[in-house]
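REQUEST FORM: STRUCTURE PREDICTION
Request ID: SP-0412
Submitted by: Lab K.M.
Chain count: 1
Length (residues): 291
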Amino acid sequence: MKKISTFQFNIERFNCKALWMSRLTRTAASMMANTARQTAVLLLLTVSLLFSAQPVIGQNDCATPFVISSIPFASGTQTTCGTVNDYAAGFAPCVSSSYGGGEDYVYQLTVTAAPVVYQFVLGGAATWKILSLHSDCPPAAANCLAGIANSAGNGMFNYSFTTNGTYYLIVDTWPTPTCGEFTVNIGLAPPPPSNDECAGAIAFPVIPTNGTCATVNANTANATGSLDATCFGAEDDDIWYTFTVPVGFTQLNYLNTTISGSTDRMIQILSGSCPVLPSAAMTQSLGLSLA
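STATUS: Completed
RESULT:
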């Protein structure tokens, strides 16, 4: 009987231990489940907060622009699809008048640190896009300050703000496409090249008279646009050179070789003294005739 009693006691003891282990397991599982639920709620809250910081997609115009609250700014992938074509094309000579007939997206930017130079970068999947900067809204040629228009839909420009105030950015297209995805990034611009302005023009090498060429490597990265006289096209980032035509010559030939970036370039010849120069010739062809 003692053996049976002892045996039964051991069984009971084992069962108590098992019961305790079972309760511990259920308690741990319950705590893990609660923690998982709390984690899920926390993750859901975090994701909701992240998404709420993005621009609202939908109807967007001068009355309801997306307000850029601080610089640097990164829009993330957005789209003009669904924002309606509120404003017609025609911002030349700031940007090509062909752009602007698609659906448009409006940003509002308040500058408080002038004088300051900002760099505006347009990206995204849509082609034939435009990003233009305006001193007022609705956008028009008269209030267009600078911009980028490119068949590839990507590019950048710098603008020097001399006064504080409220400005507007317009993202648009030259249909087709009528709309598409885009990104806009804004930050402080790196220093421009030394020949960014007319007054800083760099002397071109002496032009040979034996039919060979004088060559320079030019780079418009971080340059600003100059509102000088234009024959066609639109203002963008430009750099300046000076040269002297050899005596007895009235025509120059030039050749552009693309190292990187856009192939949509123009060369304009101006004569006189800075800062205001009349245009003598402008072309995308291989020859410039000079009177």
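NOTES: The chain is about 20% helix and 25% strand.
Reviewed by: T.R.
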